[in-house]
Amino acid sequence: MYSDKSQQKISKPVTLSTLKKMKAEGEKITCITSYDASFTHAMNAAGVDTILVGDSLGMVIQGQDSTLPVTIEDMCYHTAAVKRGNTNAFILADMPFMSYSKPEQALDNAAKLMQAGASMVKLEGGSWLAETIQLLSQRGIPVCAHLGLTPQSVHKLGGYKVQGKGDTAADLLLQESLDLVAAGADILLYECIPTELGKTLTETVPVPTIGIGAGHHTDGQVLVMYDMLGVNLGHTPRFVKNFLSQGRSIQEAFEAYISEVKDGTFPGPEHGFKS
Ligand code: KIV
């Protein structure tokens, strides 16, 4: 629906309940990263469901070679900017490297992000995060757990590699997912895992799943905005598609992405990984 004055889509604010309902009803959840008010405004006008203030800003905004140098102050600054440009989307904000290594420290830093305007915080890791997620959840802070390829662990992982390949790794990812849901995680985000594993996980866990390089079966999809607009400094990952081609405006590119995620056209088989 459009208002006569602004030509912007008018819809109700997206909440965690909306996202759970979308999973239950099989409606795909759309997510794009944003770091400022202006792009956030255009994404809202295009009708995006959720926006991730990703610590990918370390690479795409700051020109760092990983997300590790990003600080909680950086994340609060960009979360506040996104919040000011936002109307309806549900805002996830990344907790940066080493800002949640202990539960009490995580609570203090998550509170800063929520006060800056986040609707949910995102943390990278597996079962070791259970105690932290339980504490945040008990204190009323919604949590998204990011599993699979976790970029803050790039040096431990030995590079940006597909995770969860083979039965043992797949079983471990499933067990870790269940542990984090039991601890209170409200959303699970999977990065760079085989398409079939994305399907199994999405069918097994009771909370919405969002994927990036995790195939088309996850409940939602996320892309880094700069990647989907074809603005990147180096290597383009396999799971990325440039939606700004074909003479589109930026807002039309966001609309095309949203439409292709909703109707299941994106991601295609060529964007996924084999087991
Ligand atoms: O920081 C980020 O943009 C992310 C996405 C890659 C999911 O975590």
Fold blueprint:
Layout: H1 16-25, E1 29-33, H2 37-46, E2 50-53, H3 57-60, H4 72-85, E3 90-94, H5 103-116, E4 120-124, H6 130-138, E5 143-148, H7 154-157, H8 167-183, E6 187-191, H9 195-204, E7 209-212, E8 220-223, H10 225-228, H11 250-262
Parallel strand pairs: 1-2, 1-8, 2-3, 3-4, 4-5, 5-6, 6-7, 7-8
Helix pairs in contact: 2-4, 2-11, 4-5, 5-6, 6-8, 8-9
The structure holds 3-methyl-2-oxobutanoic acid.
Description:
40% of the residues lie in helices and 14% in strands. The chain is globular and about 50 Å long. With 275 residues, the chain is of the alpha/beta class. The structure holds 3-methyl-2-oxobutanoic acid.
Strand content: 5-15%
Describe the oligomeric state of these chains in a short phrase. single chain
Structural class: alpha/beta
Instruction: Determine the number of helices (DSSP H or I, runs of at least 4 residues).
Output: 11
Kindly state the number of beta strands.
8
| H/E element order | HEHEHHEHEHEHHEHEEHH
Neighbour order of strands in the largest sheet: 1-2-3-4-5-6-7-8
Features:
275 residues; alpha/beta; 11 helices; 8 strands; binds 3-methyl-2-oxobutanoic acid
Task: Please summarize what this structure is.
With 275 residues, the chain is α/β, with parallel strands linked by helices.
